[in-house]
Design a protein that fits this description.
CATH superfamily of the largest domain in chain A: MetI-like
Number of strands of chain A: 0
Largest interface: A-B, 21 and 26 residues
Radius of gyration of chain B: 19 Å
Largest sheet of chain B: 6 strands, mixed
Number of domains of chain A: 2
CATH architecture of the largest domain in chain B: 3-Layer(aba) Sandwich
Distance between the termini of chain B: 41 Å
CATH superfamily of the largest domain in chain B: P-loop containing nucleotide triphosphate hydrolases
Number of helices of chain A: 10
Strand order of the largest sheet of chain B: 6-7-8-3-9-10
CATH architecture of the largest domain in chain A: Orthogonal Bundle
Radius of gyration of chain A: 22 Å
CATH class of the largest domain in chain A: Mainly Alpha
Helix content of chain A: over 70%
Number of helices of chain B: 7
CATH class of the largest domain in chain B: Alpha Beta
Number of strands of chain B: 10
CATH topology of the largest domain in chain A: MetI-like fold
Order of helices and strands of chain B: EEEHEEEHHHEHEHEEH
CATH topology of the largest domain in chain B: Rossmann fold
Oligomer: heterodimer
C-alpha cells in the first residue's frame, strides 16, 4: 500500500513539475500566447467544453468507437493468431500476407476506409479494428506457436486429449502473450482513433482537435491532447490490473 | 525390499532391443545419437542410466516416452511396440514441467482427468497423491510459490497419481541442492515402494544411481552406447554416509570407466 502511495506521489510530483515549467514558458512572453496557452486558459477551455456538454459527449463517442473497434480487432486477432500458430494451412495461407500488412499504418487506410464504409461509424471501426487486429494477432500467434515443448510432452504423457491440451495447456501458456497483445492493441486503438476521426467525423476527441485548428483554438487542442493522454494511461493501467489477475502466474 | 517378485502387477516390462536413434542436422547430415542399445527393464525394477552429458541417455528416455522417433531396433512395453506418447508411461522432467496456471492439486487432477472419475473422487485421489509426497497442506498453492524440491514432489505426485506402468525420470533432482536431493531420494523410494512402477532413472550422478537402483547401465558417447551394466544387490535404504563394500566397488568401477572414456574422447 505504501508502495502504491509512493508511486502516486512520484507521478503527482512529476506532473506538477511539468505544469510549472509549462506555465513559466507560457507567461514568459517568448511565445505568442495564441499559439501556446497557459495551463489556466486550457482549464477554462475545458470548463467551457464541459459546460457545453461537448467534453463528455466527445469522450463517450470516442470511447465507444475505440471500444467497438478494439473488441472486433481483438476477437479476430486472437482467433486468427491461434489458427496461424496451430494449423499449417492457415500459417501458410495467411502468415506472409499478415506480415505484409504490418508496416501499413492505420492512417494510410483512412481514405480507402471512407470509400468502402462511408464517413459513418463503419470506417472508424474498420481503421481501429485493423490496427488492434494486427497487434493482437502477432502476439497471440507468437505465444501460441511457442508453447514450451515440455508442457506439451507432459500433457500428452499424462493422457490429455487434444481438446484438453488446447484449452488447459496451450491457451494458458499463450495467455501472457495474448494479454500483452491486448494491452498494446488498446494503446494502438487510441492512435488509430485519432487518425480515423481526423477526417470525416462530426464529433469525438479527434474531430474536436481538427475543429479547433480551424479557429486556432490551441487551448481546446490542449484539452483534447490531455484527454487522450489521461484516457490512454488509465486504460493501460486497467489492462495491467486485469492482466495480472488473469495471468497471475506471470508478472506483466 | 528389492528383488521382490510382485505377482500382483506383472506388467510394466520394457524391452529395448538393438536401439538406434539418429537426428537430422541442419546441414542435411545425420547424427547418430544412440546405437546398439539393449536394455531390459523387468516389471517393477529400478534401473539407472548413467553417463556424461551428450551420451544419449536422455534420448533413450525420450524414445521410450514416445517423444522422439527411433531409427532402428525396437522398444516394447509389455510386448507392445512403442508408437507414440502413451499415458501408461509417466515422465518426470528435470524442469518439473508443472503447469504454473494450476495449483498443486490442479496439476495432480490434470493427470487424473483421463480416468473420468466423479469430481469428488478425483479430488480425493489427488489429495491422497499429495499426501504421499507430504504436500497435502500445499494443495492450493501455485507452483510459483513452491521451492524446487516441493515442485518436484508435486510432479512426482502428479505422475504417480495417474498410475503409469513405467516411470521415466530425466535427471529429476539435477536442479536441486545436495540436502534436498537426499530427502528426495528417500521420498522417491518411499512412494515407489507403494506403487512398484518400473522405473528408468537417467542421471550423471553415480552416487545417486547406486543409492536408488537395482541395475545400472553406464553409457559412453559418440555414438551413445552402453559400456557396462551392473547389479546393485544391497538392500535399501542405502545411505551415502554408510557405504557398503559393494557400493564402493561399484562406484570405483563406474568412475574408472567414465574417466577412461572421457579422457579417451576429449
Amino acid at each position: 500500500m505504501t508502495n502504491q502511495l509512493n508511486q502516486l506521489l512520484k507521478v503527482a510530483a512529476s506532473l506538477t513539475g511539468v505544469v510549472v515549467v509549462w506555465w513559466a514558458v507560457a507567461i514568459s512572453g517568448l511565445i505568442n500566447p495564441l499559439l501556446f496557452p497557459t495551463p489556466y486558459t486550457v482549464l477554462i477551455a475545458a470548463k467551457e467544453l464541459y459546460e457545453d456538454g461537448i467534453l463528455i459527449s466527445d469522450l463517450g463517442i470516442s470511447l465507444a468507437r475505440a471500444s467497438i473497434g478494439f473488441v472486433i480487432g481483438a476477437i479476430l486477432g486472437i482467433s486468427v493468431g491461434i489458427l496461424t500458430a496451430r494449423t499449417r494451412f492457415f500459417a501458410i495461407a495467411l502468415g506472409p500476407f499478415l506480415n505484409l500488412l504490418r508496416p501499413i499504418p492505420a492512417i494510410a487506410l483512412v481514405p480507402i476506409a471512407i470509400v468502402w464504409f462511408g464517413i459513418g461509424e463503419g470506417s472508424k471501426y474498420f481503421v481501429i479494428a485493423y490496427t488492434v487486429f494486427l497487434a493482437v494477432w502477432l502476439n497471440t500467434h507468437h505465444g501460441t506457436a511457442h508453447v514450451a515443448q515440455t508442457y506439451i510432452r507432459a500433457a500428452r504423457s499424462l493422457g490429455a486429449s487434444r481438446l484438453r491440451e488446447f484449452f488447459e495447456v496451450i491457451i494458458p501458456a499463450a495467455a501472457p502473450h495474448i494479454v500483452v497483445g491486448l494491452r498494446l492493441g488498446a494503446a494502438l486503438a487510441f492512435l488509430s482513433l485519432v487518425a480515423a476521426e481526423l477526417s470525416g467525423a462530426s464529433a469525438g476527441i479527434g474531430f474536436r482537435l481538427q475543429d479547433a485548428r480551424d479557429y486556432i483554438r490551441t487551448d481546446r487542442m490542449f484539452v483534447g491532447l490531455i484527454e487522450l493522454g489521461i484516457l490512454g494511461a488509465l486504460l493501460d493501467q486497467f489492462f495491467v490490473y486485469v492482466g495480472n489477475k488473469l495471468v497471475h502466474w506471470e508478472q506483466l | 525390499m528389492d528383488n521382490r517378485t510382485d505377482s500382483a502387477a506383472p506388467s510394466g516390462r520394457v524391452d529395448i532391443e538393438n536401439l538406434a536413434i539418429s537426428f537430422e542436422l541442419p546441414g542435411g547430415d545425420t547424427l547418430e545419437a544412440v546405437s546398439d542399445v539393449d536394455i531390459v527393464l523387468e516389471a517393477g525394477s529400478f534401473t539407472a542410466l548413467i553417463g556424461p552429458s551428450g551420451c544419449g541417455k536422455s534420448t533413450i528416455l525420450n524414445a521410450v516416452a514416445g517423444f522422439v522417433p527411433i531409427s532402428g531396433g525396437q522398444i516394447k512395453i509389455d510386448n507392445e511396440p512403442v508408437s507414440g506418447i502413451n499415458p501408461e508411461v509417466g515422465v518426470v522432467f528435470q524442469q518439473y514441467a508443472l503447469f504454473p496456471w494450476f495449483t498443486a492439486i490442479g496439476n495432480v487432477e490434470f493427470a487424473l482427468k483421463r480416468l473420468q472419475l466423479p469430481r469428488a473422487e478425483r479430488r480425493e485421489r489427488a489429495l491422497a497423491a499429495l499426501r504421499e509426497v507430504g504436500l497435502e497442506d500445499r494443495a492450493s498453492t501455485y507452483p510459483g510459490q513452491l521451492s524446487g524440491g516441493m515442485k518436484q514432489r508435486v510432479a512426482l505426485a502428479r505422475t504417480f497419481a495417474s498410475e503409469p506402468k513405467v516411470l521415466l525420470m530425466d535427471e529429476p533432482f539435477g536442479a536441486l541442492d545436495a540436502q534436498t536431493r537426499i530427502a528426495m531420494h528417500e521420498l522417491l523410494l518411499g512412494v515407489w515402494d507403494l506403487h512398484r512402477t518400473t522405473v528408468l532413472f537417467v542421471t550423471h550422478d553415480v552416487d545417486e544411481a547406486l543409492l536408488l537402483s537395482d541395475r545400472a547401465h553406464i553409457m559412453s558417447t559418440g555414438p551413445g552406447r552402453i559400456i557396462e551394466s551392473l547389479e546393485v544387490t544391497s538392500s535399501r535404504p542405502r545411505k551415502v554416509d554408510e557405504m557398503t563394500e559393494e557400493f564402493l566397488t561399484n562406484r570405483n568401477k563406474i568412475m574408472k570407466l567414465l574417466r577412461h572414456h572421457t579422457v579417451a574422447e576429449s
